[in-house]
Amino acid sequence: MDAYLRPAADGTRVGIADFGDAQVIPNWARASFLSAINEGILVGTEQSELQPLRQVTRAKAIVIILRLLDKLKGK
Fold first, then answer.
1. How many beta carbons lie within 10 A of that of residue 1, not counting itself?
2. Cβ–Cβ contacts within 10 Å for residue 50, how many?
3. Is residue 69 part of a domain?
4. Domain count, the chain
């Protein structure tokens, strides 16, 4: 099971408002969340939530790091 949903197959970008728990993202973090979402590094849970107030498991942290490294390598 993938812990995160992928961006839309048609290439459209997903915005913060597309997630059910977007209102709990602190204002100071919104721009960073939006950048990470648009780059496909953060893409939410199967329930279309970002869960910004929950602790990140090691497994999810590794997935995020690997996605970031792939972006940096140009994949």
1. 3
2. 22
3. yes
4. 1
Q: Which of 37, 62, 64 is nearest to 49 (CA)?
A: 37
Say if CB 53 and CB 24 are below 8 A apart.
Answer: yes
Burial 24-48 (b: 16+ CB within 10 A, else e): ebeeeeeeebbebbeebbbbbbeee
Q: Write out the two tokens for 31.
A: 């721009």
> Could you tell me if residue 2 is inside a domain?
no
Cα separation, 20 vs 51, whole angstroms = 9
Query: 13: closest CA among 50, 38, 30, 35?
Result: 38
Predicted TM-score (pTM) of the model is: 0.71
Q: How confident is the model at residue 11 (pLDDT cuts 50, 70, 90)?
A: low
